[in-house]
User: Which sequence fits this backbone?
């Protein structure tokens, strides 16, 4: 699985958009980009994933650059409950088993 | 609501004692996973199971054992052979190759 690089921490004002970047310059053509978040003392929560097209769901939007070497998770209107550690993961989905490899992630603090 | 239930939320183990962590899912998912998370670190795969009555070792299986007698249940036993069991244990499940893993809320194990 490709390695990802994320900023250690970020702040965002409540009600504003939170833009969380992720670099994955060694991503392969068959690797997907997944985003999870983990609120303290809880299990990771799946947010969104994509291959090369931009994706949107009820939680967030995922913007993947054309060369697929980086992506941005967008929380359109951040709330205090969005304070969490956000993990960007790239992995091949079509494997005999697909363990999830979490790096340190980005600690997002939403400020009132 | 469908989901993954882990119990207990907190567990204490005495020296030399085996303890079993419960993981139940009502999502009808085929694959189930056990991860260990240490403070400030990512997840490490302990065991996984693709189907009933079958399971495979992950990256750190020593000192742990599992069973998969029913599709909805994947208990993890932390044996006395695991010398450093204090950690946050997470269970996950997945249905389909392109689907993300969904996590339970974890069990925090400590040594008395």
Assistant:
């Amino acid at each position: 699985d490709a390695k990802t690089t994320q900023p250690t921490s970020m702040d965002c004002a409540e009600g504003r958009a939170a833009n969380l970047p992720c670099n994955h310059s060694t991503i392969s053509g068959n690797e997907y980009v997944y985003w999870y978040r983990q609120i303290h003392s809880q299990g990771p929560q799946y947010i969104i994933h994509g291959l090369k097209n931009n994706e949107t769901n009820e939680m967030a939007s995922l913007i993947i650059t054309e060369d697929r070497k980086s992506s941005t998770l967008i929380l359109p209107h951040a709330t205090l409950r969005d304070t969490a550690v956000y993990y960007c993961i790239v992995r091949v989905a079509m494997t005999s088993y697909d363990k999830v490899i979490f790096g340190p992630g980005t600690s997002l603090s939403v400020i009132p | 609501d469908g989901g993954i239930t882990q119990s207990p939320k907190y567990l204490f183990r005495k020296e030399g004692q085996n303890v079993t962590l419960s993981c139940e899912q009502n999502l009808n998912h085929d694959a189930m996973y056990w991860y260990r998370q240490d403070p400030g670190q990512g997840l490490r795969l302990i065991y996984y199971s693709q189907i009933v009555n079958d399971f495979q070792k992950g990256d750190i299986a020593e000192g742990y054992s599992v069973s998969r007698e029913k599709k909805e249940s994947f208990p993890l036993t932390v044996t006395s052979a695991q010398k450093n069991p204090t950690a946050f244990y997470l269970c996950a499940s997945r249905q389909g190759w392109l689907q993300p893993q969904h996590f339970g809320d974890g069990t925090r194990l400590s040594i008395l």
